[in-house]
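Most newcomers find our protein records easier to grasp once they have seen one. A learned vocabulary of local backbone shapes supplies the integers on the structure line. Here is such a record, shown just as it appears in the course material:
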Amino acid sequence: MNEQKSIYACYEEIKQREIRELKKTLEAFGGVAHFGPDYSGEGAVGSDMPYICVHFDEGPLDVRIHAVSLSQDGHIEILGSIETDDYPESISIDDIAYGQIEIITEAIPVRTFSRVSFKISALTRDDLEAIGFDASDVDDDTMDRLASKLGDDYCEQLFWTSLEIIAEEGFNIPRKESKEDEEG
């Protein structure tokens, strides 16, 4: 006998899939995502706050999402505010309308960890002109060699010191524990 599901059972399956996708996205993003241009700490997404529909006792309302995170026990915690209120409150995932969790998931950028190099700077003929040189006859080969020498000089003199300071103080990137720290 072929049993048909109700439309609500189908909606619930979709919602459960959306919840699993949001959890996976949060895990990949570090467990927490804060939305809005005013937040710049850990987990900052920096995008506009997503709006979703949430069912309250008084009916469905538009809610701005401020933050979403995974608790230590793996539950999704959501902070949001009704459009007319700036104070965020806890939103139950069960009260979110069908198809709305995906809006939160899509607002979290995908974090990638490739092994590619990242360009620090570029040299142009305009750079030479800006400091008083006539670069009109400087060919690409000369520019390439000049850029290479400049890069070597930067690495020998400033690169490692600057990288250490900016990574630690500017971005709060933690240091690995040294073997001495682990042993003693």
Notes: Residues 167 and 173 are 6 Å apart (CA to CA). The chain is about 40% helix and 15% strand. The mean pLDDT is 85. The chain has two domains: 8-107, 125-183.
